[in-house]
Amino acid sequence: MFNKIIKRGGRKVPKSDASETTLLSNTYRSAGGPVISASNVTVNHASRSPASSGSQPLAPLGSAGTTAGLTQIENLPLFRDVPVPERQSLFLRKLQICSVVFEFSESLKFAREKETKRQTLAELVDFIQSGSGRLSEVVQEELIRMIGINIFRCLPPASHENTGSENADPEEEDPYLDPTWPHLQIVYELLLRYIVSSDTDTKIAKRYIDHCFVLQVLDLFDSEDPREREYLKTILHRIYGKFMVHRPFIRKAINNIFYRFIFETERHSGIGELLEILGSIINGFALPMKEEHKLFLIRALIPLHKPKAMAAYHQQLSYCITQFVEKDYKLADTVIRGLLKYWPVTNCQKEVLFLGELEEVLEATQPAEFQRCMVPLFRRIGRCLNSYHFQVAERALFLWNNDHIVSLIAQNRVVIFPIIFEALEKNMQGHWNQAVHGLTSNVRKMFLEMDSELFENCQQQFVEKEAEAQAQDEQRQIT
């Protein structure tokens, strides 16, 4: 009995269990990605580390100052020059060449090898694009591994980290251009062609384009190179379209990026591109809208109006917000109150953007939702009318050029006109800008034609209020 216990205690752990904790980190460690704890990740046993397929990962060149793997960079025959049965093995050999990563800080170093790799990558793109044949599962695994080695890397420090400047305007600075782009661009093109190819079986591909892969793609959106972000936007959108199983995960991961940006860092290069993807996703939401999507609007999209750098992505954000209101008009009240909550107090340029977005939202707003929020809304618009910044006052007055908004105001003029009348009269009496003065006169005339009796009542109340304020001021002077 004792011997049996000893034997059982010394039994070896199966390889599949013993290596489970290191599978994911082995797969992506060579790509420069973060080491992910296996306790937080469900390991896909079909997606083994590259060692299991019999091919050894190649050491990167230049970055560690080593020439290991240089013998692997050789000129291989073209696909058309070899028989069809041998093309899969040739594809694997070409993938090994492309797995060597070069340092581009010195352009002349390994120049021949770099050009060989670039040409090989271009051949792989042509091979997949031509639909020359369905790739085997082993080849697909090696392909994704090679792509990961090339694109998953530590991004260089952001420009504000190099200069130490906190108030730099990203629109005024020259965009950062990654020196490795000659290779990166073709790798991204290869990944894109693989995803959109009709020969790519989703059931097999999702074993390698998994949650870990998607997370690392999302991390790359913080790249300062606009060319890279444009490719990433297209690739993530295609992944979302093709791999339905990943859709909830992608939305949640983008949510988390937004939360971190809004409440912690207020620095991220790819918010605009992520919002462009979401604009397309929101456009495809089915009705009635899920509660999850409404919470995303309230918790992520509306608070994105808060950061100082909102101007960089406002166009995309405004499109997403308007899509929600057009999909479900009952959300108009929620959106307008959200805009009022984050309305800028001291930033006039942001205020002009808010007024433009407000007009788009009001254009999709129905009378019932408009009545719920019109009182706080027109109190804010009244303050905008009296702004000393002429662009803010002018943009607020332009709201009366929109026929739908004018019809909403006309239906509720008994409530709105008394709120807005004082602001119009003060502009007429003393605003410094002649354009604002002229636009105010037009709006005032519009109100007079709309309801002359209400106009006279508001004017009488305004005169009485002004006289009372003057009497109080005189009494204060006497005291």
From TrEMBL:
Any one GO CC term of the record: cytoplasm
Principal localisation: cytoplasm
Pfam families listed in its UniProt record: B56 (PF01603)
Gene Ontology MF terms: protein phosphatase regulator activity
Gene3D superfamilies with a match to the protein in the record: Leucine-rich Repeat Variant (1.25.10.10)
GO terms of biological process kind: signal transduction
Superkingdom: Eukaryota
Compartmental location: Cytoplasm
Disordered as annotated region, ranges: 44-63
Function comment: The B regulatory subunit might modulate substrate selectivity and catalytic activity, and also might direct the localization of the catalytic enzyme to a particular subcellular compartment.
Family note: Belongs to the phosphatase 2A regulatory subunit B56 family.
Protein name: Serine/threonine protein phosphatase 2A regulatory subunit
Organism annotation: Vanilla planifolia (Vanilla)
